[in-house]
Amino acid sequence: WLTRTARGKGLGVAAIQAAVDRAVAYGATAVYAETLVTNVHAQGCLRRLGFALSRGRTDADVVALLRLVPR
Hints:
Blueprint: H1 11-25, E1 30-36, H2 40-48, E2 52-55, E3 61-67
Antiparallel strand pairs: 1-3, 2-3
């Protein structure tokens, strides 16, 4: 979650990318995230990084999955 003053500066994408990079370094095969349908900014960040988005357990949830290629 980013404060309003931090939004629009690429920090969300950078933070998610850092988590993905760490997951790759640890040998993970996928990264999973959850957000709300109303959080379009988070969904945009996830899409920009290649996550596949789909509906979650409820109509209010979105799940995101990024398959990783181990190094």
